[in-house]
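Z., the sequence and structure:
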Amino acid sequence: MAQDRLWQLDYLRRRAVGRLSEIFGVEALESDLLVRTVGLHRIAADEERSLPDRSIGMLEAFSSGVNSVMEAQFDRLPIEFELLGYEPEPWRPMDCLAIMGEFRWYLTGRFPVIVMPELAKRVLGEGPMYEAFLTAEAADETILVSGSYPSNPAGVDAVLPRLGGGPDDGSGSNNWVIGAARSSSGAPLLASDPHIAFGAVSCWHHAHLHSDAVNVAGAAYVGVPAIMIGRNEHVAWGITNNICSQRDLYLERTKPGNPNAFLYDGSWEPAITRVEEIKVRGQPVVRKTVRHSRNGPIVDEVLPEAATGTGPVSLRWIGATPCGWLPALQASNRARSIDDFREALRPWVAPTFSLVFADVDGHVGYQATGRIPVRSREERGYRHGWDPEDQWQGVIPFDAMPASTDPDQGWIATANNLPAPSDFPYPLSNTSPSGHRAQRIRQMIEGQSAIGREDCVRMQYDSLLLRSVEGLPGLLQVLEEVGTRRTDEAMELLSSWDCCMHSDSAAAAIFEVFFNRWVQQIANQRFSSNAQAVALGDSGAFVSGGISGLALSMLYADEVGWFEQGKRIPMIQATFISALDELTNSLGPDISQWSWGQLHRLRLRHCLSARGDLGELLDRRDEPVNGNGFTVGNTGSDPDYVSKAGANYRLVVDLAETPPRLWYVDAAGESGHPADPNYCAQLDDWINGRYHPLSLDMEDAVKTTKTLLTLESR
């Protein structure tokens, strides 16, 4: 890993401990301030003290390996060190834990998920409009179904309302497992494609770890000495982010004249303070005083800009405690059955993942990992820091988390959708924005009597957009009244469209540009002219990121009076016309020549690509791609339509194969060296769905080996 990704390792640890400004200057200060305020660097140190000896030994060995590469390559370090004019410091075990901590923050922190509803509630008030704002797409598409989990345990409030859906990052992930009875090979199949930002250097590092104690292959997150997605000789597994809230933001009350005293249960409690010093290249040291209430650090200065006037606000995050993630991963790598695998996950506190897994004995399973805080009331915005009722009431026990083994339907799939219906015995605090990808996966599985490995590959590249299947009839009905030549031409394309986001489709471009504009129009109706919204800094652009479910429903009806009477239909029509104007300006006047791929393009960017012409030489390609952020074949849904995040790594396993192997493809590849022929070498294979085999049998693996590196202990 160090030979392939030495600069990336250093970049990730600097990002994780808030030291990017030392090499990038003031442009990285915002990132460092967030990390130092949340305290990720301190959390890693606490984590190290809590680890079992076996994990510490692994981290020490990994660190020794990284340091040996630094020593051997000191006079020929990766080019990024030369471009930035610095040298790496020795690697420490805590650096791995810091990287893991920053990754779990990325997966579970997500301030906008709470800030958007808070701003909406302040503008809309509580009631039908606020509930409409929280509308999710296909929210009834759950991983588990009613009746597949135990009844309400003693002491848990069964009548607590359980809101489903809400604003969250739509990039997501998919995984599914097919039982032996539905598999064409007679053994379980597993597929997994975690979605994350695309880059010229992948965040995943493919590895095969073979010793007397373990034989496991798959993808490790860079900086982590364990396989996160993959298989061993007995068990295969895949991951998605289970979007269940592991953090809360608390509105605090400070004592008049004393901002360092916080109200709790009728009494004033003194703040705990610490000073963070951030070195900034070419600038004086920045000193930041971080205050803590009983709930956690005061974070209002690092919240999204739209919420900077809503504080003081504190953060309580379960990831701030030792999380057991590394020991759980290491134990799972050695599992010999799905029961072993599930038990290996027990120490795992954060992040919350949905794991599917299968073993060579034909069993399949699902487990929601991590711990979810139990709250006494449902709240999507800020909680009250002064109210004991808003304190956490404990966490959901591991044995009560959503899980399934060998379900009657013969398969399990997850796509960041709701883990269970609202009658699940514990509140899961899920904020999934859409169940459409999960719904589409179910349709594809149920549409085949027997499924093979190549079927799974085709499913991972599926570009049917169920949002358009659901919304297009309503849109076309409204547009019938417009009657201009250009709208008629566009409607004809939409009427014959198969609703697939193919890169050569003009209709896909038309629908996507319209829907993006429609979402913004929905937000503007309530968040750009309302006096309270203006006081909050015109939050329309910000909240539009979490309002797609409401926008989709508004193509058919306005049941809550979001628009003035009679304004909805004319607004849809005007929005469609403005979308055609945008496309004409960017792609030309001939509608027949438009295509989604002209807008939706993938470029693998390096972290330094924005730093002048030399930096741009580190990027690779600029390719049109199918899909968007809400298709199973996920390629992102950025406001500028560029493909910036999606299924950059794809894995399929057929447990019937002998010798045991897995099939994978990474949009970038293994090498992190821009001059290496293997730098971004897998992009063509990724675009065209050509997967690579990786065998767990050493004799078989050597057949596809070009070079061999032998590591010797000393």
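The first strand starts at residue 173 and ends at 178. Residues 157-165, 531-537 have pLDDT under 50 and may be disordered.

Let me know what you think.
H.
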